[in-house]
Amino acid sequence: MDIKQFESELIQLKSELQSRVSRTHKHIYQKDQPVSANFNEQIKETENDGLVMALEAEGLEEIAQIDRALSRIQDGSFGQCQNCGKAIDEARLEAIPYTSNCIACAS
Ligand SMILES: [Zn+2]
Question: Of 65, 59, 79, which is closest to residue 19 (Cα–Cα)?
Fold first, then answer.
């Protein structure tokens, strides 16, 4: 397994989420600020500040999960299930690089 590859994916994902969260944040708190066209579409679909706030909370939670995955890379436990200690299937890690549980424990 290529840890470096997962690490760079996690860092990339984190920066995408951070910019998404900050755009969401602006939508909630500075409504007259322009946001990207794509993001505007998303907002039109929800059109509800409660949902937008949930979206922001979800993004922040994902960022926290990514931070934990990055610290597992640092301490060498990345790719191990935090519940049973077995190796997480690599295909699962490719789909969700910040996952902390194997398929058996997650389901
Ligand atoms: Zn497990």
Answer: 59
Q: Give 10 Cα–ligand 1 centroid separation in angstroms.
A: 21
**Separation of 89 CA from ligand 1 center, angstroms?**
10
Q: Please, what are the domains in the chain? A: 48-107 (1.20.120.910)
Residue 78 CA to ligand 1 center (angstroms) comes to 13
Q: How far is the CA of 11 from the centre of ligand 1 (A)?
A: 24
Phi, psi torsion values for 96, nearest 5 degrees: -130, 85
What separation in Å is there between the alpha carbon of 69 and the centre of ligand 1? 15
Q: What is the pLDDT of residues 52-67, one digit of tens each?
A: 888 899 999 999 999 9
- The Cα-based distances of 94 to 23, 88, 99 in angstroms read 27, 10, 10
Report the C-alpha gap between 90 and 72 in whole angstroms: 16
Distance 74 CA to ligand 1 centre (A): 20
- How much is the average pLDDT of 73-93? 96
